[in-house]
């Protein structure tokens, strides 16, 4: 028995993502019977002490059916309208089914900005964690009605992975219409074989994973990528068939089903992985040689004394790139002072901060807990 599968038995928090193709019965409208069965399993897992965040696709596919459209439109505004219609059906189905188990659900609609903006990220994280702590099952989808093409996640595999990072889940379970990841797309390669387990970062998987079906967005390619993202906060990813009887309960029992994609590294602090991946840098701090060594060789925090110059426009809490004097980026981190204050205190020992600024802030310009070497 693989160690990663075995860990599913004792894990505490799962993000379970159900894909469009599954949910909407291949375009025939919401498969209410199947939703009922997944909810029964989720409710049982919850009863056994597992915390669940559900990421559910299907709003666009269901909206298209409800609106009586024959084809999936290309226009973003039509897709957005369909999403708004279909989302009503989705949440109604989950709410009604979880009610049978006396469980409350909560609707969470997220956008890319909620991951790239620190305040919104922390807000989303606090809300999700609060919901879990009071026993509510959050039902997450992308906020399709407000996002434009350029900034959409588009597929919910990526969203699921980022939610797994956000709540520091132990596992990301991607339920889809195939038994897992095959060596090639089984729709066009009947001789393809199922991969039972691989490393989440294994590059050879990229060539095997193809695009999606008629309804799904992204196919296996986005699932393999999602596993890599989820691995950054230490989560294992399982790709499995939502059509398999009691799939979630059986995965919990570590039955060998689907594909398990295992993180190579041990979990890094959630904050650090977020810094590494989700934020746009707002400015640059250029360090002197001593400060570079303190960061790189001794794992120290960045003090204002070691900073030679400040560029960009950032507020307290935002992400900055930290470079050496040649302009080479050596780290990224969340800065404790906005650009104006930072400019005033650089070059000064930390004991002078109060005199220079007139208030006591942190001793560090960037604390080591909020800093990732690149
Ligand atoms: N190597 C592969 N193994 C399994 N399925 C694959 C592979 N490459 C592409 N696919 C396709 O990915 C589809 C699942 O992804 P997708 O359609 O996006 O569904 P979902 O809505 O569940 O995310 C499958 O129906 C399958 O045809
Ligand atoms: N937010 C979209 C999800 C897009 C989608 O289909 O994603 P996926 O299930 O990963 O193929 C919706 O609810 O329709």
UniProtKB/TrEMBL annotation:
SMART domains reported for this sequence: PUA
GO biological process, one term: L-proline biosynthetic process
PROSITE patterns for the chain: GLUTAMATE_5_KINASE, PUA
Keyword check for Nucleotide-binding: yes
Protein name: Glutamate 5-kinase
Keyword Hydrolase: no
Database matches in Pfam families: AA_kinase (PF00696), PUA (PF01472)
Binding site for ATP: 17, 176-177
Chain residues that bind substrate: 57, 144, 156
EC number, as in UniProt: 2.7.2.11
Keyword terms of this UniProt record: Amino-acid biosynthesis, ATP-binding, Cytoplasm, Kinase, Nucleotide-binding, Proline biosynthesis, Transferase
Enzyme class: transferase
Pathways per UniProt: Amino-acid biosynthesis; L-proline biosynthesis; L-glutamate 5-semialdehyde from L-glutamate: step 1/2
Compartmental location: Cytoplasm
Catalytic activity, as annotated: L-glutamate + ATP = L-glutamyl 5-phosphate + ADP
Function: Catalyzes the transfer of a phosphate group to glutamate to form L-glutamate 5-phosphate.
Stored InterPro entries: AceGlu_kinase-like_sf, Asp/Glu/Uridylate_kinase, G5K_ProB, Glu/AcGlu_kinase, Glu_5kinase, Glu_5kinase/COase_Synthase, Glutamate_5-kinase_CS, PUA
GO CC, alphabetical: cytosol
Coiled coil regions in record: none
UniProt GO MF annotations: ATP binding; glutamate 5-kinase activity; RNA binding
Family: Belongs to the glutamate 5-kinase family.
Domain PUA: 283-366
């Amino acid at each position: 028995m693989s160690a990663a599968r075995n860990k599913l038995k004792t894990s505490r928090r799962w993000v379970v993502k159900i894909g469009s193709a599954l949910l909407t019965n291949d375009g025939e409208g919401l498969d209410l019977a199947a939703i009922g069965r997944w909810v029964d399993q989720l409710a049982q897992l919850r009863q056994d002490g597992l915390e669940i965040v559900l990421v559910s696709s299907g709003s666009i596919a269901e909206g298209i059916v409800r609106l009586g459209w024959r084809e999936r439109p290309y226009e973003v505004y039509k897709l957005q309208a369909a999403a708004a219609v279909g989302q009503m059906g989705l949440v109604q189905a989950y709410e009604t089914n979880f009610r049978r188990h006396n469980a409350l659900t909560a609707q969470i609609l997220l956008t890319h900005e909620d991951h790239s903006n620190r305040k919104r990220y922390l807000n989303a994280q606090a809300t999700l964690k609060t919901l879990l702590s009071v026993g509510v099952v959050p039902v997450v989808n992308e906020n399709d009605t407000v996002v434009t093409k350029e900034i959409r996640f588009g597929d919910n595999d990526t969203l699921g992975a980022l939610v797994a990072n956000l709540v520091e889940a132990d596992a990301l379970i991607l339920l889809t219409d195939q038994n897992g990841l095959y060596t090639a797309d089984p729709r066009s390669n009947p001789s393809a074989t199922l991969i039972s387990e691989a490393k989440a970062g294994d590059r050879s998987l990229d060539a095997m994973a193809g695009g999606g079906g008629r309804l799904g967005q992204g196919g296996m390619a986005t699932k393999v990528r999602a596993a890599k993202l989820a691995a950054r906060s230490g989560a294992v990813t399982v790709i499995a068939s939502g059509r398999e009887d009691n799939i979630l309960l059986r995965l919990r029992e570590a039955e060998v089903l689907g594909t398990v994609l295992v993180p190579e590294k041990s979990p890094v602090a959630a904050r650090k992985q977020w810094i590494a991946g989700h934020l746009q840098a707002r400015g640059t701090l250029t360090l002197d040689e001593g400060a570079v060594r303190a960061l790189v060789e001794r794992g120290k925090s960045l003090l204002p004394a070691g900073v030679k110059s400040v560029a960009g426009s950032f507020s307290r809490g935002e992400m900055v790139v930290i470079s050496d004097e040649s302009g080479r980026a050596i780290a990224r981190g969340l800065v404790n002072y906005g650009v104006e204050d930072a400019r005033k205190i650089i070059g000064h020992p930390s004991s002078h901060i109060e005199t220079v600024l007139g208030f006591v802030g942190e001793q560090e310009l960037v604390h080591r807990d909020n800093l990732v070497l690149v």
